[in-house]
Amino acid sequence: xxxxxxxxxxxKKRDTVxxxxxxxxxxxxxxKARAGEIDLAYFDESGFSVNPVLRALWNPRGHPRTVLPRSxxxxxxxxxxxxxxxx
Length: 87
Description:
By secondary structure, the chain is α+β, with helices and mostly antiparallel strands.
């Protein structure tokens, strides 16, 4: 396992051919956007939990955990869209 990664998750090797093809396609789209032929937008999403995940806690020896997990895990999804302007 890699430090800082969740147990059981593995890094996938990048497919260099597909990566280069995608990079070339993105560059072509950027050129079209700069030429005013298209409007280029970047979209992303992320999720947040109101209650933190408590995977491990430090407690003095002989003292039980004092933070109790909540029964309902509220999550929020956030969407972002950035539309590039013509320069």
